[in-house]
Structures are given as structure tokens and as C-alpha cells.
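The instructor's notes for this session suggest beginning with a concrete chain rather than abstract definitions. Hand out the sequence below and ask the class to guess, before any prediction is shown, which regions might be ordered.
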Amino acid sequence: MKISDFDYDMPPALIAQTPIEPRDASRLLVINRASGALEHQHFRDIGEYLRPGDLLIANQSRVIPARLLGQRAETGGTVEVLLLAERKDLGPDYWETLVRPGRRLHEGSRLVFSHEALPHLVLNAEILQRTEAGGRIVRLSPAAGQSLSVRQLVEQLGRMPLPPYIHETLTDPERYQTVYARISGSAAAPTAGLHFTPGLLEHLRKQGVRVGFVTLHVGLDTFRPVECEDVSEHKMHSEEIELDAPTAELINETRKAGGRIVAVGTTSVRVLE
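After discussion, reveal the predicted structure:
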């Protein structure tokens, strides 16, 4: 399978730059697998294609404001760090990251992050090593005198890491979270779930559709392009996932009863696989 097999024309004007309101007013393309027929609907109509006894599996990962803007401690030069995954195997507050400008940020470089609206909050970072994928392992630490933890400082100082094709400023960070996002850890949103509203989920439950949650923290491969022509040669990065016992029981019960397991987006599919 070649990446050229996936080439298609995408007019930039068709890429939405701001989220539609309400969430479930977004468009929905439905494909009949038996006939190949296409239907153009709205996401609020998704219940028409679900049956009582079906089980939706959704990714409850929450996006962290993983984009940090700061300066090099030595020179004052501008830097940008994107937090990809916490490396608990290395120790507390170690992170795998992408950095810019990469050519100037070497082992031992020290970085300082702050925000013009929050001048009393300062987060420090030290670059420890380069990764095989071209990223950096960094250790974060609160500046002297800070009472907040690293995680709290990231929540205060970080910005949402929007996809590169979105050029508008995000005015409401919660709009880049699913309404059921609960466990922080993703560097990007599991976007298929962004269209659900609390009202739509309640409507589906009343219809007899159950909802279960898994966790997959979206990381490096969301931002890394496929650079080899043969897709099978592309090396995938690891991802942290969790499927707890209650959700596993829901899945088994649904299958035994003849219901369908419907994954919300590719991240949920990967957990189930």
C-alpha cells in the first residue's frame, strides 16, 4: 500500500476554522456498506443508525494544553515545546517532546516558560537527550518560590496544540475537548467525539444505546508525517491505553446479546483492537 493511493484534492476553503455550534449540528456522511450508497446527514441524526442494545465505545482522554512558549535561559531566544507523553519510566516530570528550533536545542539547554497574563508563574525545563524520532526528553520543574506543581503550571501556562491546518485562535479551550473528557494526557483531541453533546448522549441512552469509555492518550504520531512511500515501512510510536474491567464486561455482555460494538473514532478502534 502506497501513500500516493490516498492522494486527493482538498480545497482549503472547505477546512472549517472554527467549531460549529451546537456541536451536533456538524455534518455526517453515512455509507451503506452493502450498497455503497452515500447519505448526507447531520451528526444529531446518528441515533437513526443505532439500535437498542448497541454499545458506543468512546475515548475519554482529555487534551492537556501541551504547547509551551518560552525562552532559552542562556540567550533569551524564543522556543516552543510540545509535550507529547509523560515518561514516568524515567522519573517524575520527565516528558517526551517536540521542540523548535530543534537545531539549537541540545542536551543541557535550559528553558523558561511564562505567560504575559500570569507573570508570577514560571516553569523551568532542561533538555536531557535527543530521541530516535528527533524529539527531546525534557525534565520540567517549578521555578524557585512556586507553590504550584508541574502539572498545575502546565495547565496555567500551556496552550492548546491545534492541528496545523487550523489557523484561527481558539477562544474557548473547552471546545477542543469532548464533553466526556476526563483523564488528562493527550497532545491532541480524539476528534470524532467532539460532535457529541450531553443532550445527544442522553437521547441515545433513552433509545437503549449504552456508552462505555476507554482511554488512549493521543501522542507523537498525530504530528509526525508518513515519510516513506510504502505504508508498511512506517514505524508507529507507542500509545498509552486503558480498558477497565467494567467496560470489558459491557463489551462482552453486548456481544453475547447480539448488539453491535460501535467505536467512536480511530483512537477507540485502536484500544479495542
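Then share the key points. The helical segments are 150-157, 198-206, 245-256, 265-272. The mean pLDDT is 93.
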